[in-house]
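PROTEIN FOLDING TASK:
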Amino acid sequence: MDLARFDPNPVTYRGQATSPVVVDWEGATQVAPFGLLQRAQVKRVRQLRYATIIFLVLAVIGAPVAFFVIRELSRDPVFAELDELNLPEWAARNPTDGAVGSRWCINECRSRQRTWESARGPDETNRAFVGKLRDAGWVEWDIPDCQAAGVDGIETCWQRDEYVLDLWVRAAVCDVKGARPTISPAPPAATGGAKTPTGKASAKAPSAAVSQPPAGGDGNGAPTTICPLAVTTIKVFNRISYDPGGGGQPGP
């Protein structure tokens, strides 16, 4: 009996296909999806590689830019402009800074102050600062109460953009303790000392010379490292918070 008629699987029987067209479906479903998956993996690796290169380039370029941006945001622009005044070295020694308030006027607008020491007198120091302020675009502002009553020195007010500047130059006040007097050694006594009216030689040695060094100078009128000849203070305010009769005046 030919059992082929009763075979529930009409694809193969005894190694021979009974259908007129033979299609290897199992082989086709294995080769085509594997190729597509391989191409997708290669594309994903290429995209990841490009993204890594782009990230490294942005990191190398963006790191210095971020550094300078953060530094500029954290640095007060007023102090930066004072650094760029190009003052003479003798007029801008030992700068000291101070600031109160917020740069963005939150609750209180910021007021800045810088103090220098000068090796020359107040008049010459004031001329040096006035010339540099004019070169930087500051305009002298003649307003009442700019020169505080009872304050020594030269005080002038300036304005530029949204800022007001108070320049105060005065003579330095130094409390310098004088050096202790020195005693120069006595010269040796002469062997044949001066004779007294009785005809005997005097054995008394000449008195030692006492020298007192000048305090606050080197004897020639030049300033010492202890006490300068003048002190300059610049205060910068926002115009909306400037009070010439109150907070705008420099302290003693």
Summary: Confidence is low (pLDDT under 50) at residues 27-32, 190-223, 247-252. The first strand starts at residue 12 and ends at 13. DSSP finds three helices and ten strands in the chain.
